[in-house]
Amino acid sequence: MLQHSIGKEEILEAADRIISTLSPSVEEDRLNMATGLRLYREGRVYNVNLYDDVLEGTVEDEEACTVQLPLHHIDESYCDCFQVGGYCQHMIALLFYAGASFGLVGEIMKRFKHKDKPVDIIPQLKTAKQLLQTAVYEENDYNSWLQFFEREAEAFTKEQAKYPFRQSYLLVNIFEDFYKKLARKAPRVNVLRDLFTLNAALFGFQQLLLAAVKFEAEKVYSYYNPLVVASRFVDEIDLLIDKLMAGPIPMNYDHMISGTGQLIHDVFFTHRIMLPERYFLYRRLWSDLLKQNIREEEERIALLSPSNLQPLALAHIAFIHKQDETAIDLLQAFPYQFVDLYIYWIDELCAENKLERAKTWLTFCYIKVKLCLADHDYPSKRELARLYLNAYMRFADFIDDTAGAEVVLQELLPYSFFEYSEHLLNQKQYRVWTDLQLMMGYDFIDGLQHIVREVEKEDREAVLPLYHRAVMQCIEMKNRPAYRQAVRYLKKLRTHYKKLKRTEDWERFIMTITASFSRLRALQEELRKGKLIDDKN
Fold this sequence. Notes:
- 64% of the residues lie in helices and 4% in strands.
- It is mainly alpha-helical.
- InterPro entries: Znf_SWIM.
């Protein structure tokens, strides 16, 4: 529902901006407001969604109109009725629909009707509570942000506790309700807004970590896997970092950058779950947004008691300083099972075309990957192979090392099967590709049909062994539908043999099949129906 994605204040602010361009004394404006209200009340507004602060929906009038209301830039509103100038009745209908989620329909009409009436010169006095609610935080005070986050977290927790049935949705609500509510209350200044939202997301991620630990300890059921919610936070933070890196950050925001460094330090060092997600965010921030403050982080780490996390943090700092050997020395004593965390650096170096450094890390990681794949207890072997091979193949493309890539692909079999198969096709090594399919025991040829058709065009002879095996698999099933499928494959084989001018080989093959399975009368009948053998056989 919209109230989970948008705030009451935003609706009223958008309404005030629209109303500021209208006048109750102008007939056309009165008609637009009345028509918009009627369209909403008649249920002609539907398919309403919110994307990146843009409210979008369809309004059914004489014809369906698509309407967009950018809540923070309402003057850029759009409707494909293409009314020239001002806000059309369709935009107003969508505004009423959004306002109805908070019971604001009457309030919006009231503000329009009283727009031109004189107001009291003496402002209405506010209570202390109202003043506190107005000044939720100081925009330029980082500590005020954190205090605001804490107050909102406390209020959110109390609200969730009122309704026990909400507990199963608590983890996802930390993102959907708690974090998004904080983001809606961000300052309006662009860079400041993104910094505030980034810190709100980091704080929200911290709340998720705490809640996930509590759920695990108390055996509370959650409809959403904590890792799924965590991935949403990671994606959000990644996007916000990109936005902040797109332009300069004013020097008067340095204390906020420093505060962000302390917050991500706490996220990484004070929790014990979701290490890959925490380490990704830690590296992402210190590699880009916080890079100029790296000395502060080194000082923080120096004050910590020894822990398993320090080598990881110091290794990344060494990586930033281009001290790869130091970083590798720090990680040598670390369990090889953590190798999936190191592949991030290879991707970074390849993206920056720093290939010599990438080669160093590929060699280091390769040894660890081999140890993991040889470990019977290591889970997700296929996923690890995929991660490493993606990084290696990107590197190999840069240096045009096809031979080296093929060696690595062979070494990591069977976990590299899909990547090796694709590599062979790209290199047009079709007969080796066929041998790989046979060796891996890939299931029926139907699953490869689209690839087989492409291979047939290039090297018809390469696919013959696949059809031979497919025929035998069908016969071994010993039922009539399978025999019919075998006949179809045999017809395809006959065509290939004839085009290859190997009719004698075909004759020998079909005679062998007929003689070997002479007791399977149903098969013999299907062979005759398919005119692969005659009655004499």
